[in-house]
TrEMBL record:
GO BP term, example: sulfur compound biosynthetic process
Coiled-coil intervals: none
Any matching Pfam family: Transket_pyr
Keywords noted in UniProt: Thiamine pyrophosphate
Family to which this protein belongs: Belongs to the transketolase family.
The protein, known as: Transketolase
Cofactors required: thiamine diphosphate
Domain Transketolase-like pyrimidine-binding: 8-173
Length: 317
């Protein structure tokens, strides 16, 4: 009997977990840039108004204030849409990363799954932008459970700033409730010896469905959740290269400076094997229904299946 797929919102999980943690830790403060009903930080704000700051449509001021609150000893979470935080790149660079100030930037509405808001809001470059900043760590949770565990992890104040990327759409729940997030470590959801598919976010569930379809074609695909983008699990990448000989990366992001680039860099240095990158090419997104856009841009489930099959069979031509 096939297991029923459960869909849950990552941003709601974020807001609910923040509010639960606020009960236990009075040093947690939350900032938002006039989008708290969408990012779901309003769940925390309604419960703890004295520790919630709506900074208005002033993202640069939000980043500066977040840095100051952190330096004053607070555990700080700052949220807005991913595309709007990118406007503050230089402020994050100078005020947060350069000074090694621990601020937790948790952004929502990233990628093409944002849908109808269109290309002006569908940021596809943010993982690369934030990964390039010294001291910044980057995490893209796979489901609501991992989102909660990541927020639990960050609620114990760290020494570095973090960028956590969430989206608008609900994702399939893949983890068990007992799951524990480990920074710099990947999770293998499906083992296989013929080829490896590495992904993060919604693309992990797509990869798992593609791998099941490939099984009927006698292709045994390994599927790995690479939610910790920086630091990344180098050992898992090298092991996959050695074990399966080919790696496919799948991401709701530009193929430039994302997971595909990081995996390619590591295998080229450590154990060279062919890598195929699935993601957005050198283009912007498009307005449309969020989940339909994956098929439109040829990065959906059937596309992952087809590309992976062709890539695997290339050696037999």
């Amino acid at each position: 009997m096939q297991k029923t797929e459960i869909l849950e919102s990552l941003r709601e999980a974020y807001g609910e977990e923040l509010a639960a943690l606020g009960e236990k830790n009075r040093d947690i403060v939350v900032l938002d840039a006039d989008l708290s009903s969408s990012t779901k930080t309003d769940i925390f704000g309604k419960k703890f108004p004295e520790r919630f700051y709506n900074m208005g449509i002033a993202e640069q001021s939000m980043v500066t204030a977040a840095a100051g609150l952190s330096l004053a000893g607070k555990t700080v979470f700052a949220s807005t849409f991913a595309v709007f935080l990118s406007n503050t790149y230089n402020v994050i660079r100078q005020s947060v990363c350069y000074n090694e100030v621990p601020v937790n930037f948790v952004v929502t509405h990233a990628g093409i799954s944002l849908g109808e808001d269109g290309p002006t809001h569908q940021i596809l470059e943010d993982v690369g932008i934030m990964s390039g900043l010294p001291n910044m760590k980057v995490i893209v949770p796979v489901d609501s459970i991992e989102t909660r565990r990541v927020i639990d992890y960050l609620a114990v104040k760290k020494k570095n700033p973090y960028y956590v990327r969430l989206t608008r759409e609900k994702f399939p729940v893949l983890n068990e409730e007992s799951y524990e997030f480990k920074e710099g470590k990947s999770v293998t959801f499906r083992d296989g010896n013929d080829i490896t598919i590495m992904a993060y976010g919604i693309m992990v569930s797509f990869a798992l469905k593609a791998a099941e379809a490939l099984k009927s074609k006698n292709i045994d695909a390994r599927v790995i959740n690479m939610s910790s983008i920086k630091p990344i699990d180098r050992d898992a990448i090298i092991k996959a290269a050695r074990d399966t000989g080919k790696i496919v990366t799948a991401e709701e992001h530009s193929i430039y400076n994302g997971l595909g680039s990081r995996v390619s860099e590591i295998v080229s240095e450590e154990y060279p094997v062919p890598v195929k990158r699935i993601g957005m090419p050198d283009i912007f997104g498009k307005s449309g229904k969020g989940m339909e856009l994956f098929d439109y841009f040829h990065i959906g489930i059937s596309d992952i299946e087809k590309i992976t099959e062709n890539f695997y069979r290339e050696e037999f031509k």
